[in-house]
Design goal:
By secondary structure, this protein is an all-alpha fold. It has one domain (14-93). Helix content is 64%, strand content 0%. The protein is built from four helices and no strands. It has helices at 18-30, 35-55, 61-72, 79-93. Helix 1 (18-30) packs across helix 2 (35-55). It is elongated. The chain starts with 17 loop residues before the first helix and ends with a helix.
Length: 95
């Protein structure tokens, strides 16, 4: 018997054109999957890619070198940034 942690209790409902449904049914059949399984695996694959595209940064060798050089360089605060940090300290951090 599945534990509560493994139960599937969330649901997503879709409304779509009949032509889209037929296409999905056809594709699911080609892959030997149920329509639900096909939609779920396709959506999860797409979601993982979207998350990775937004959370992962890929740099070529030159850009990676520039990025790490910038990270390792000492920080230089200009007058406006220093003033903003002081203002933040007075109003937020100093409470």
């Amino acid at each position: 018997m599945p534990t509560a942690a493994h139960q599937k209790n969330e649901r997503i409902n879709l409304r779509l054109k009949s032509s889209a449904k037929r296409l999905i049914e056809r594709a699911a059949g080609f892959e030997g999957k149920t329509v639900s399984h096909f939609i779920l695996t396709s959506a999860l694959e797409c979601a993982e890619k979207a998350v990775q595209d937004h959370e992962l940064m890929t740099l070529n060798a030159r850009n990676a070198e520039d990025f790490f050089d910038a990270l390792s360089a000492p920080m230089r605060f200009n007058r406006r940034l220093t003033a903003a940090l002081e203002e933040h300290e007075k109003h937020v951090a100093g409470k």
